[in-house]
Design a protein that fits this description.
Strand order of the largest sheet: 1-2-9-4-7-10
CATH class of the largest domain: Mainly Beta
Helix content: 40-55%
CATH architecture of the largest domain: Sandwich
Low-confidence stretches: 164-168
Strand content: 15-25%
Length: 275
């Protein structure tokens, strides 16, 4: 579908999809999509739209205003908007971008998570351009596979959650801290020491750690301890008390409470489950 809108030039196009009831209930689903080439003067402003919007900036820059923020999305960056909030996006120069309006059962929760984690703009996602281009092509087929669309969207959102997924952990600035935690998980996490390993201030370290892993350092340590405890419960005959001490818990009761909170069963019950 050609676009007759101020600031949108050829070969821009957009189209619509009417998802099935099943897709709305159980999948991620695209409702509208397009590939725009825009000039200065292109502007979209809405007070409310019951949808979420992904934009991949292929070339140029896109200005975005929402939630009392004003940001500039540059080439090879992704914008994620919850359109239920008043929003505006516009071009001050020639800009090319691919976009998808989407919805679905778990969209709200995932968008909230990504916004809390990274805000409106996602960097380090150059490798996702191919995913956007491929999905754009698949959406133009006469028959659309809703399950494949959902899988593609899920893959994009997941990779946005961990933008460095294609790089080796050993190359990441947080590697020294993560390596220390996983090798010394029986010790308490000293944030000042861990931040120093990465050459960061404590506040910058905590923020960067959460953005990269989705957890605070203490949450990451607790989950890693529980992971090691599971291994010991299933592969050794050590007592719960011994395992709690080996994994760095203050006491067996502390270990049991943390384990039950995470797994909804006690360590002893977990040990009896056949695997």
């Amino acid at each position: 579908m050609k676009i007759e809108d101020h600031g949108v030039i050829e070969p821009s196009f957009m189209d619509f999809i009417i998802p099935s009831d099943f897709a709305k209930e159980a999948l991620y689903c695209v409702t509208k999509f397009g590939h725009f080439y825009c000039t200065r003067g292109y502007c979209i402003q809405r007070e409310f739209l019951d949808s979420f919007l992904l934009i991949y900036v292929c070339h140029g820059t896109l200005m975005v205003e929402t939630r009392n923020q004003k940001v500039e999305a540059q080439e090879n960056q992704i914008v994620l908007l919850d359109c239920q909030y008043a929003h505006k996006y516009y071009c001050n120069s020639d800009t090319e971008f691919i976009w998808f309006h989407f919805d679905g059962n778990s969209s709200q929760s995932y968008v909230n998570y990504l916004y809390e984690k990274s805000g409106l703009i996602f960097d380090g996602v150059r490798s996702l351009k191919h995913a956007f281009v491929s999905m754009l092509a698949s959406l133009q087929n006469a028959v659309i596979n809703e399950h494949q669309v959902s899988a593609n969207l899920s893959s994009i959102l997941s990779r946005m959650a961990v933008p460095d997924v294609t790089s080796l952990l050993s190359e990441h600035p947080l590697h020294p801290a993560i390596s220390h935690i996983t090798r010394h998980y029986e010790e308490e996490a000293d944030l000042k020491f861990l931040a120093g390993l990465c050459g960061l201030s404590v506040s910058h370290f905590i923020r960067s750690f959460y953005q990269y892993t989705g957890y605070t350092p203490h949450e990451f340590l607790l989950l890693f301890r529980l992971r090691q405890a599971k291994q010991l419960l299933l592969t050794t005959s050590k007592s719960v008390e011994e395992i709690s001490e080996l994994c760095g818990f203050n006491s067996a009761s502390h270990f049991a409470r943390a384990f039950r909170k995470q797994e909804q069963i006690s360590p002893s019950q977990f040990r009896k489950i056949p695997y």
